[in-house]
Amino acid sequence: ADTSHQARSVSSRPYYSLPNSSHERRSVLAVAEPPRFHSQAKGKNVRLDAHSRKATRRNSFCNGVTFTNRPIHLYEKVRLKLVAVHHGWSGALRFGFTIHDPSQMSSEEIPKYACPDLVTRPGYWAKALPERFAVRDNILAFWVDRHGRVFYSINDEEPILFHCGIKVSGPLWALIDVYGITHEVQILDSMFAETMTTARLSTARLSTCLPQSNHDSANFNNNELENNQVVAKIANLNLSRVPGLGTDNHIIPCCPNRRQHAQGVPAFLDTDLRFHPTRGPDITFSQDRMVACTNWQESNRTLVFSDRPLHIGESLFVEVGHLGLPYYGALSFGITSCDPSTLRTNELPADPDFLLDRKEYWVVYRAFPVLNSGDILSFMVLPNGEVHHGVNGASRGMLMCVDTSQSLWVFFTIHGVINQLKILGTVQSSPVTVSPSGSPGGSQYDSDSDMAFSVNRSSSASESSLVTAPSSPLSPPISPVFSPPEPSSSKNGECTVCFDSEVDTVIYTCGHMCLCNTCGLKLKKQLNACCPICRRVIKDVIKIYRP
């Protein structure tokens, strides 16, 4: 054995040598200064604090490459706290190691991106942190072992095997690219990782969210967004020179523009419909209010509304984007007679079902199929009150039936895997021929969908107008056919069956409120009973109690 080597003090060991025990590793940390960011070798958008422990990217999404000021020991954990995360860009922190001494680098040598600019050069190894871990105040730790394997962990959870093939025969500096949604990171004091035994290595999770090998996707999206922001700023500058015309100069980087799927979208769309300024507090709009993004980790209250009613026969096209992660929940869609300008932000709940207790007309649908990022949804209200939808140009049939006698606004909630909703535009359709099944083209409505019902507390005149909606010629013959009731001065309208009692019952699932409770219970017991307004099958009747 090399006794002279063993007798060498810990502080004089090369950084790339392996401490022989846990006690010796703790001794290394006791004498070694905690790592800091290199004060000179950094991207042009990086700003360091006075102690070089905190790195902030001030502009753009890139030029955030940094290095540690000293080499990192084998098994020494580089611990980073994600201080600030700003959503809207694509991609997150990139990290890894390099054999090149940052002190020998000039500022011109440091490129915009760690990936692919640095990793395509010899002696650089880095990959991207999966976006699902890029959450504010998370602590990322990463280290390299004597076999050249890089592991990382989040908040001291189980390690994840991240990279292999690192050259450990010489000093290694940590490479950190403050990229994309990661805005500010802080280096914490080091710790040593335990040696990965064979048994533990077999249970170490391999990172399943590695970026694309050429890293082009995130860089392309971010460059496209940044270019659009420059164009918008120039437009704002030009508009600000027009007397009396105010502009909003606060460009909020929302979700990047993605390559639009042309499937199912007409060539020409009207773009006069946007999101209403009234929105849930966890929603961010693009400057033109055509794109709504969630704040992801705090995306609870995410209601958004159209800024005008949807016309009868008008199709609305929206594009969804999501994180690509296995989260529950996705998207809810609804129709309301409530003008969003009459609402306050603090009145908007996280669950749209709470809106059903309001006095206005509300209908909510939440049983959407699994959606992919870039899918295009369409919604259209037919003259008979049926609301139909499609996905990527394919009709999916009827969602609900609504009262078309009043102005109707569209609303959505964005949550779960969905983090973006973009209004593509609208088109006024030609009159739709409704098939006997009640759906265009014969598509059948799935009556087993789990849809929330709404309560329509409209006036008697409105209730009367609802009854004039045409019935399907194939409606079950055993269900009674009703004549329109005479106009009533009653507060809530007369029952459309007995024309005597006051309306106090809502039909599930269509949401129409046109019966008294006595007639509703009788009608429910009939075979194949259906709503006297829309001819939908009656699943249940619910009595409404008013104060």
UniProtKB/TrEMBL annotation:
A single MF term (Gene Ontology): ligase activity
GO cellular component, one term: early endosome
InterPro entries found in the cross-reference section: B30.2/SPRY_sf, Neuralized, NHR_dom, Znf_RING, Znf_RING/FYVE/PHD
Compartments, record wording: Cytoplasm
Enzyme class, broadest EC rank: transferase
Biological processes per GO annotation: Notch signaling pathway; ubiquitin-dependent endocytosis
Keyword Lipid metabolism set for record: no
EC numbers: 2.3.2.27
Principal subcellular localization: cytoplasm
SUPFAM superfamilies found in the cross-reference section: RING/U-box (SSF57850)
Domain NHR: 34-190, 272-426
Membrane spanning residue stretches: none
Keywords of this entry: Cytoplasm, Ligase, Metal-binding, Notch signaling pathway, Phosphoprotein, Repeat, Transferase, Ubl conjugation pathway, Zinc, Zinc-finger
RING-type domain span: 495-535
Catalytic activity: S-ubiquitinyl-[E2 ubiquitin-conjugating enzyme]-L-cysteine + [acceptor protein]-L-lysine = [E2 ubiquitin-conjugating enzyme]-L-cysteine + N(6)-ubiquitinyl-[acceptor protein]-L-lysine
Ranges of Pro residues composition bias in the record: 473-487
SMART domains: NEUZ (SM00588)
Biochemical pathway: Protein modification; protein ubiquitination
Role description: E3 ubiquitin-protein ligase involved in regulation of the Notch pathway through influencing the stability and activity of several Notch ligands.
PANTHER family, per the entry: E3 UBIQUITIN-PROTEIN LIGASE NEURL1B (PTHR12429:SF10), NEURALIZED (PTHR12429)
Name under which the protein is recorded: E3 ubiquitin-protein ligase NEURL1B
